[in-house]
Structures are given as structure tokens and as C-alpha cells.
Amino acid sequence: MKTSHTAFLISILLLASFSSLTHGLLLNGLQIGAVRVNGVLFCSLDGNLRGNSPPLSGAIVQLSCAGSQTNLSQALTNPAGAFVVLVRILDTILFDPSSCFVRVNLPVATCSVFPPDGALTASINLVNIVQTAILDIANFTTGPFVSSVL
Question: Residue span of the signal peptide, if any (predicted)?
Fold first, then answer.
């Protein structure tokens, strides 16, 4: 009996692995296979470009969605303060553009202007969808960062 139950479970898993994703992120009628979020972070009180504020290098940027207990993905800012957060095809199922945001937990060691605790958050906005032969990629950019207390 146990062998037939195990064989049944293995069959279901195999069928599921060979089927295409029928549920996932659908934008403008297109099945999205990957998500890319671009942004730039500066060493200013709120993380936005203020006057001649320098770019923030080496900060961890996380992509989170309301209702999800985990971060979908994260990236590190480069020397110009730029980052690209990539979301893999399987994680697009958890991605909801209306409830997702970018977060940087404070403090960040390379910027003494930030408060000692809290976070910087920014909304995300769809820029375009790039269709390729393999998959469709949704490109987002961040809105202005705002400072919040956790």
C-alpha cells in the first residue's frame, strides 16, 4: 500500500514538473517569466538624490511584497548606487506589482546621514515588458524612497 502511495505522489510531481506555469504573473495579457527592478540609492536623509549627495555603494536592497513573509530577491548597490533586483520565474507567482516594494534596512555602514534604525522603502512602477523568444521580462523602476521606522 505504501509503495502505491509513493508511486502516486511521484507521478503527480513528474506531471507537475512537465506542465507549463498556468498560474503566475500576467501583465498586459503576457505571461511574465522574469521581473527586473532597477533603481539608484544615494547617501541622503531619504535615499534620494538631494543636491550633491553621493551614491550609496554596498547597500543591500530587498524586494518584498505585502503578505509575503520572505523577500523575493535582493541585490547589492554598485559604486554608482545603482541596483538591479531580479526575480526568478518560479518567484513571479508570489510577485504582485501593486503590493511589492523595495526596502533597504538601516543603518547602512557606508552612509552616516541615515538614522540609526528603520528602513528606506520605495514603490515600484512598470516601465515596459520585453518579449524574447524564451520568456517575457517585466522591467520596473523604483519610485522615490521614503524613510520609515520599523
Answer: 1-24
Does this model's pTM top 0.90? My answer is no
Per-residue cell: 48: 534620494
Please state the φ and ψ torsions of residue 16, each to the nearest 5 degrees: -65, -35
Residue 62 pairs with which residues in a beta bridge? 74, 103
One-letter identity of residue 145:
F
Residue type, 100: C
Residues with Cβ < 8 Å from 76, sequence gap 6 or more? 58, 59, 60, 61, 83
Mind listing the domains of the chain with CATH numbers? 23-148 (2.60.40)
Question: Could you tell me which residues are beta bridge partners of residue 85?
Answer: 37
Q: What string of DSSP letters covers the chain?
A: -HHHHHHHHHHHHHHHHHS---SS-EETTEEEEEEEEEEE-BSSTTSS--TTPPB--S-EEEEEETT-SS-SEEEE--TTSEEEEEE-TGGGGT--TTTEEEEEESP-TT-SSS-SS-EEEEEEEEEEEEE-SS-EEEEEEEEEEEEE--
